[in-house]
Amino acid sequence: MFNLSYKTQRILILFGFLTIPVLLSLTFSYYPALSLLYYSFTDWSGLGWEMNWVGFDNYKEIFSRPEIFGVFKNNAYYFVGGLLQTCVALYFAIVLTSRLKGRNIFRSMLFIPYVLHSVAIVIMFRNVYHVQYGSLNIFLEAIGLGSWQQQWLGNPHLVNFSLAFISIWKYFGLTMVIFIGALQSIPADNYEAAKIDGASGWQTFRFITLPSIRSVLELMLILTLTGALEAFDIPYIMMLGANDTHTFVSKTVDMAFKFQQAGLASAMAVVLLLIVIAFIILQRKLLFREEK
């Protein structure tokens, strides 16, 4: 009954192994993605299934309304903050990879913010940034810098810096742990050979450490870029878009669920995806060109 040829058995086994992954991919990845693309060409409100085909009108609206596409300037704060976070995290990773006493305690302390819920973090930093009772203004007053006290969330020139700092504070520990893992994979023999040859600390970092963690650096820059473009939870929970703090994702959420313009929100999601892909390709071409 089961006297099948070797070729038939091979085809059945391959078919059996591939069917479930392909079905799962089609169900949870490709179908939702194609649906999103379709909705972006309609005037769907997000309620019911009544919709009309509007062509590229949603895309024209995105690029013609400054209050939609212009919010990308706020994402720039998170990108610059992410670059700063990557540099500082690499420095701390190098320090905490050395034979520093109590380094595991410092690693844990720096990683804890990452596991905190965003709502809890927002509540914490509301107490930090409060104008009258915030710990930041109280600290400035205590050290004689009372003139530096600010409305950290009320001043339109400072609010996005304040929000970007919270993102740096939260994700710094994760970046540092990833760098520590990469640094620990570098053979100690390389450093010992460099030390015997009389290399300085900077030369060791420049010619051994950086080339060894090049792929991790590339990954972190991609994560920084995508994280900045998709910044949402902390600014939205903290400010709900007030005081010109909308990011592109929070604007998309408002468009879909507050203003019931799901078709336009779908087009914004597609535009964000294309921008992320374009920046990743550009970044790989310019910064991490393969050596021939």
- What structural category do the secondary elements indicate? mainly alpha
Give Rg in angstroms. Answer: 25 Å
Major β-sheet annotation:
none
Amount of helix: over 70%
Mean of all residue-level pLDDT scores:
89
Tell me, briefly, the overall form. Answer: flat
The number of helices is: 14
**How many runs of DSSP E, i.e. beta strands?**
0
Question: What is the CA-CA span between the terminal residues?
Answer: 56 Å
Low-pLDDT sequence parts: none
Helix and strand element order = HHHHHHHHHHHHHH
Strand fraction:
under 5%
Transmembrane segments: 12-31, 76-97, 109-129, 161-183, 216-239, 259-282
Family: Belongs to the binding-protein-dependent transport system permease family.
Organism: Cohnella hashimotonis
Subcellular location: Cell membrane
What would you note in describing this structure?
- By secondary structure, the protein is an all-alpha fold.
- It has helices at residues 6-39, 57-64, 66-69, 72-97, 103-115, 118-129, 135-142, 159-184, 188-196, 201-212, 214-229, 233-239, 248-258, 262-286.
- The termini are far apart.
Question: What's this model, at a glance?
Answer:
The chain crosses the membrane at residues 12-31, 76-97, 109-129, 161-183, 216-239, 259-282. This protein is an all-alpha fold.
